[in-house]
Amino acid sequence: MSTSVTVTIDDRQIKARAGEKLLWVALENGIYIPHLCAIKEESRPNASCRLCFVEIEGVDRPVTSCTRPIEEGMVVKTRSLRVDRLVKTAFELILSDHNLKCRECPANRNCVLQAIAKERRIKLRYDRFKPIVREFALDDSPAEFAFDRSRCVLCGKCIRADREEAKIGAIGFARRGINRVVTTFKDLPLAESICTECMLCVDVCPVGALYYKKSQRQKKGNPLDYPGNKSSG
Amino acid sequence: MQLLKDEKEQILACVAEVLKSNSKNREDLIPILQKIQAIIGYLPELAMAKIAEGLHVPAADVYGLATFYNQFRLNPPGKHQVKVCLGTACYMVGGTIVLESFERRMEIREGETSPDRLYSLERVACVGCCTMAPVAVVDEVVEGKVTPTRVDGIMLALNEANNQNAEKQKPEQDGGKA
Q: Minimal Cα distance from B43: which residue of A?
């Protein structure tokens, strides 16, 4: 039904189904590419985190691997000076409005940001960009989980879980620019919204924004989210 | 924002009317919101909820859209509308201080309307007279070189006008509001 093509990623020959996105082909073959917002099932990815850049031979500029379908004979490098610069800048921008009190965070050591920082050797601290950490009221209205927007990276995974899996439509993006947030209609606390507290969104949150109140209960993290040297969450 | 008497009925009628004369696809959401705002003057929460119902889109999406675009306002325009310029020139000479002064005086935040609907406060990006920065537009009157003291003066004048108005109207209707 579908043809198989051969691509070269970091000098490794890999066979995969034509049309699959580069990011997932690499991840499934143990080659790590940082990513936050990518969702495998999405036919048109947001490509909003700007972390999954790779270099393709014959293409002028680095491209986001989550949007790029593989083609026969494609030669890909996951690292280059240009890629590293783009990824580092994007990562630092994400950190610049992220609450970096990791020790107080329920996702500490089980956080995709930490994993990326470790893999790419980027320091988890405010550096080049002036930090804009906004004050948010913690939404701990649901019975078993809570939502701390100061840790949210706006990847949109929770919204997809809410729409496509839970089929509720309780949360969505609102506002614009630096004020963008994931929120409910009228900014109601989750428990007062139409949220059914199914907690599918908590499981897909790559950071500590949505978390279980009881720390014993761990998120079911996607092992592909983490570099190979780290035991999966 | 507390709805006024009869306002609920007006909103429901308006939404029903607009929804009837429109196709109900997701891409019609923006034109529909524009029509509602043209009639009611703002987008009440009730209207957003009804539109979401009518178009079968999550209410969170309607809210997200209405908060994304500057053209949509979520609060009714006040009797006196104040717009504070935060364009580059005004920003550099302390436009935010002017905005904060208004916020303190009106006891509302930027983008809001006072509960008695007398005042609404907005920020705008350049009114076109940067030499007068920082600028505020008070009911279509451009105020230049605004200082916090001037804000006090403006608010005093507006309050005065309101009080006089209220007194004039008192004999005709039983104005129970403060």
A: A186
